[in-house]
Design a protein that fits this description.
With 270 residues, the protein is α+β, with helices and mostly antiparallel strands. The protein is built from 10 helices and 8 strands. The strands form 2 sheets. The protein has a 4-stranded antiparallel β-sheet with strand order 4-1-6-7, with no helix packed on it. It has a 4-stranded antiparallel β-sheet with strand order 3-2-5-8, with no helix packed on it.
């Protein structure tokens, strides 16, 4: 009697092959998780052929390739077996279509929310500054009207100072200066999904999970740690990355899984 899900020629499934190779290499799941930066529950699930926690075929294939290297298996062979067991390799057409569309109309395709936010902050700060400077015993009208010099002649020199826009720096917590204003003794990383959505995971230097999930188009996340931040990006080409106030020039390609580490100072891939 044949079993519907049994691999051909009695060959072990992808998850069982990874598990057996790990055992043969005398590695624990914790050791493999530390080496690959794939969380322990996900490693356990993959070894049981449960890929539902990977976030989709693209991320599952990336995890299979990484685990294969860690336990000494051929990554290409194991990914091919995964594709055979799960309906074939995902078609690259959607990613190529998205890439072409973004090249044809890069700017109109997404609103510049940062510029709008900064403009709104400057307007509010200007209004508050104007109210503070004109909130004395006299109404704000006379100091602004330069023609009215008879009643303001003694304070003529003070007039320009009162009409000047103080424009204090915008609140760092809601502007692009948030990363640049971070303390120099910390590492700050900001993710912005500009060209599509991407699965992501962020961990502190001690292995504590800061957050993981799907970063949808237009969303952003900011993380700070004393020493190091470790990232996993499932669709690196869709993410714009800022590290310690500077934009990283090239994060990766569309559909590419990237594992990155950043520390204090200028952004350098770990």
């Amino acid at each position: 009697m044949s079993i519907g899900n049994s691999p051909p020629e009695d060959r072990p499934s992808v998850g069982r092959a990874i598990q057996q190779a790990r055992i043969d290499a005398r590695l624990t799941v914790d050791e493999v998780s530390t080496t690959t930066r794939i969380r322990v529950p996900i490693v356990h699930a993959i070894e049981q052929d449960d890929f539902s926690r990977c976030g989709g075929d693209v991320y599952a294939r990336g995890h299979v390739r990484t685990l294969a290297r860690a336990v000494g298996l051929d990554p290409d062979d194991l990914v091919a077996r995964y594709d055979a067991e799960h309906g074939g390799r995902p078609a690259p057409t959607p990613a190529a279509t998205l890439f072409e569309a973004e090249r044809i109309r890069p700017e109109p395709s997404r609103p510049n929310w940062t510029a709008a936010m900064v403009a709104a902050i400057v307007a509010v700060v200007g209004f508050v500054g104007f109210t503070l400077f004109s909130g004395g015993d006299e109404p704000a009208g006379p100091p602004v009207a330069r023609e009215d010099t008879s009643s303001e002649a003694p304070d003529g020199e003070a007039g320009p100072a009162e009409t000047a826009d103080p424009k204090p720096d915008p609140d760092p917590s809601v502007s692009d200066s948030a990363i640049a204003a971070a303390p120099a003794d910390k590492v700050t990383v900001k993710l912005v999904a500009e060209d599509g959505q991407s699965w992501f995971s962020a961990e502190a230097h001690n292995g504590r999970l800061l957050e993981e999930g799907v970063l949808r188009a237009g969303d952003s996340r900011t993380f700070t740690d004393d020493k190091r931040i470790d990232l996993v990006l499932g669709n690196a080409g869709a993410v714009t990355l800022f590290v310690n106030g500077k934009e990283v020039d090239k994060v990766g390609e569309m559909g590419q899984v990237q594992r990155l580490s950043y520390t204090k100072g200028d952004p350098e891939q770990g």
